[in-house]
Amino acid sequence: MAWLDTGNVTLHYEQLGVGDPPVLLIHELGGNWQSWRQLQPVLAESRRTYAVDLRGYGLSEKPIGPYEIEVYADDLAAFMRTAKISVADVIGTAMGAVIGASLAIRHSDLVRRLVLCDGTDGMTIEAKRYTHERAVKVRAAGMRPVVISSLTNSFPQHHAALREDYRAIYLANDPIAYAEASEALARMNIAAEDFARVKAPTLAVTGAHDFIWPPETGRRLARLIPGARFAVIANAGHFPHIQTPNEFARLVVEFLDEKT
Question: In whole angstroms, what is the distance from residue 140 CA to residue 248 CA?
């Protein structure tokens, strides 16, 4: 357990393993470093890993908003540079995948390989409306009124037990920071030509049962990134890193270990 002050924000992180290149893990909306507690030890068997709490999350500083996807990406770039990490493999999941893509676009020199797990190429009008309405509810009444709908969308019924385990992580969110993150996601404005600027070899992965951003969304995202590959994880929903960590780890390790 450690903290690093970038000059703009203090970020908490958990570091496991040794070896280069290191791996930077970017959690989902509503998660924190604990979202990686099953996957990080597997990756740490052969490499150095950093699971970072984004601003507003977990044990990191919670500045006054507004937040933006680009702000999260710049925070992570500053984290890497302050920690003297010259380049890393980056794995982002859900909103973390959007942030990971932004990091690869804005700071391409820092990203060796990129894994986008259940990411998206954009927010539909309906998704923006839903995300905004959820932010309004959270600001007014906290996390509890939205926990059932949010986690039902993220965890298919056959992962109901994992959904209950995750419930405590979700309810522990700071409501204001969560609302700011939701609004940042709703304002996501990464264009097709921006995705085309990703230079890092990229693997897009989507859970077959993802209700929020289903496999076709992942395929569309992969098509926008030059040379990107796409894979589906059969038994997973929106959070393969939690729901099917062994299968996700296998895909990730094979991809990261490929010779270029």
Answer: 37
As its CATH architecture, domain 2-123+190-256 has 3-Layer(aba) Sandwich (3.40)
| The predicted structure's pLDDT at residue 260 | 66
Return the closest-CA partner of residue 19 out of 2, 44, 39. 44
> Coil, strand or helix: which one is 206?
strand
pTM of the prediction? Answer: 0.97
| 72 neighbors 190 (Cβ within 8 angstroms) | no
Give the pLDDT score at 71. Answer: 98
The H or E element spanning position 26 is strand 23-26
Rounded to an integer, the average pLDDT of 12-38 is 97
Across 94-112, average pLDDT: 98
Which amino acid type is present at position 62?
K
- What average pLDDT does this structure show over 91-96? 98
Does the structure show a pLDDT above 70 at 125? yes
Annotated domain spans of the chain: 2-123+190-256
User: Tell me: the pLDDT tens digits for 127-138?
Assistant: 999 999 999 999
Rg of the chain taking only CA atoms, in angstroms: 17
Neighbours of 135 (CB within 10 A): 22
Nearest by Cα to 117 from 218, 223, 47: 218
pLDDT over threshold 90, residue 224: yes
Helix axes 69-82, 95-106, angle to 10 degrees: 60
β-bridge partners, 204: 116, 230
Q: Which residues contact 249 (CB under 8 A, 6 or more apart)?
A: 39, 42, 43
Contacts with 70 (C-beta within 8 Å, 6 or more apart), sequence order: 102, 106
User: Which among 244, 238, 246 has a CA at the least distance from the CA of 120?
Assistant: 238
Q: What is the DSSP letter of 36?
A: G
